[in-house]
Write a structure and sequence with these properties.
This protein has 2 domains: about 180 residues, 2-Layer Sandwich (Chitobiase, domain 2); about 170 residues, Protein Transport Mog1p, Chain A (3-Layer(aba) Sandwich). It is elongated and about 70 Å long. The chain contains 13 helices and 13 strands. The N terminus is likely disordered.
Length: about 375
Amino acid sequence: MSRKNFWDLLLCLGLCYCFGSSCTKDSPEKPLPPALGKLNELTVVMDTVWWQGSIGNQVRQRYAAAFPFVSPAQPLFNLQYLSPNRFLTNPRFLAQRNCLVVIRKYSANPQEQALAKIIESRLSQEQLKQWRDNQAFAIDKVWADPQRVMVIAVSDEKQVASLWEQYYPMMYQKIRENEVPIHESTLFRKKPDEALNRKIWEKHKIDLDLPKGTQLLSAIDSVSWLHYPYPDGGGNLWILIRHTTVAEQIQAGKAPEATLRGIMQRTPAPNALGGGGLIQIETKNPALFASTIRYQKTIPATEWRGLWSLGNGNGPFLIQLPDFPPGAPVLLAGFLDSKNSNQAEKLLELQFLLQRQRTETKP
């Protein structure tokens, strides 16, 4: 069989695979295989020359950079590079959970051309417009479920650099959203502690779905402290839930560092956390990082990330102050200790836990 005929056959098989068994008239669609890949894993598919050149360097600089505030150092993503040829000819590669495909729409390379046609065949009308207009976008469940394939479709190499700088933050967020099922099978592999979550709801009107094994250390006035010891000696997570004022919530957006320092100076930790007392927030080396995020895509929130210390305890933290509930905002904080293994994964898990809270009334 000639090389051209081989890739024509592969394209045909790929199209049939994309549409399940819809190549057979009136036959039911086959379910996709389960996605493979762990948290923080990203498969990158592009031309080998591109990967070895400036485009590959840009991807590595952004997505293989060190995860902030984590020691020992861990990358944002563990990158796996594959050429279009290797990607298409191995079912395990096709089933990877998170993929980034940088592709020429009209390539002389038969492998890249076959991949481009398979992707194009899976696009909605809106995505077809993005495809024609040289934009980046996400498509789900192409070869596996749950799977997210981020696509940068271009006509030539020059277009990749500008599109990359424009779209890499959006693509990062889309990839993280696709990791929700992993979080639900790790921190939430134990059923939620219904009794504890009921107490937290009655006191703070928020629902975090805290897992079994979480301990309520103290609940005084508008402040609650909780402790979750990770199984198998994997370290500790301390959770702070604290009512704030609307003025503090507004001030957090204007002067985030001063606002957080003031809140923590009025919120002593229990004895179980470093012997108790006031948690120190590192603001210089490394600098405290503050940003504005959105809960459920609509609710604004101030988020802080950095390092904390108290007594002989220290580690990374994540703190969020959403404009919710209306008129009575609640600060949510998580403090990991330095003994935690896989700190990057646990910080992502913590972010998912804090943003999992629901805004509707508890039944």
